[in-house]
Design goal:
Helices cover 41% and strands 23% of the residues.
Length: 220
């Protein structure tokens, strides 16, 4: 999942960025609304983590702007505002969840995956794909009682496909899931990681649609 973190606190921002990246997600971290607006114009994100108090304005205004433009990207608000009225305003403005600082990073991860499951049409924490049992929350894939281990970027490929189960996912969409800004992208990167996933999960797990992209070979 490609994540946009909008947070001006250096310590918290670095902690969230590193934790989310360690979970296998690509994450772009910006500290101002101006940079956030530029980021969402350039990239299709799977999730936005939004602070409310930013140097150049209110996160609520940014959120309302997204929704008025018809942008349905899921948004989780991260803020020190803990009044019920603040939570109501955030949710009524289009937020999908609300987490009050200070928060546990494990809880943030669980909320991120819960929101992603709802948007991806897979509300269950365990997805069955053929003879595979896939737990996105705890990053576990099991076949016949045996666990199969994927790397962070291999998980990024699977997450991109699972989020659009049954649909074709373009190479560009998978590249966005694999990398954050500033990362090197080679011409064959997607093919390399798709090949690695196939070797571990079976060659029929991911189908190549020539000239278009990829899709899951089995229905999730």
């Amino acid at each position: 999942m490609r994540v946009l973190l909008i947070e001006d606190d250096a310590i918290l921002g670095e902690a969230v960025r590193d934790y989310v990246a360690a979970g296998g997600h690509a994450i772009d971290w910006v500290r101002t609304l101006e940079d956030a607006k530029a980021a969402v114009r350039a990239v299709k994100y799977g999730l936005v983590l939004l602070d409310l108090r930013l140097p150049d304005g209110s996160g609520i205004g940014f959120l309302k702007g997204l929704r008025e433009e018809g942008d349905g990207t899921p948004v989780i608000i991260l803020t020190a505002h803990d009044q019920i009225s603040d939570r109501i305003e955030g949710l009524n403005s289009g937020a999908d969840d609300y987490l009050v600082k200070p928060f546990n990073l494990g809880e943030l991860s669980a909320r991120m995956l819960a929101v992603a499951r709802r948007y991806g049409g897979n509300p269950s924490p365990v997805i069955r794909l053929g003879d595979l049992e896939i737990g996105q929350a705890d990053r576990r894939i099991v076949r016949d009682g045996r666990q199969i281990v994927l790397s962070g970027r291999e998980w990024a490929v699977m997450d991109a496909l699972l989020a659009r189960s049954g649909a074709i996912v373009s190479k560009a969409q998978i590249e966005e899931a694999l990398y954050a800004f500033g990362s090197e992208i080679e011409s064959n990167t997607v093919e390399v990681y798709v090949s690695r996933v196939r070797k571990k999960l079976g060659h029929d797990t991911i189908l190549t649609i020539r000239g278009v992209g990829y899709r899951l070979g089995m229905q999730a």
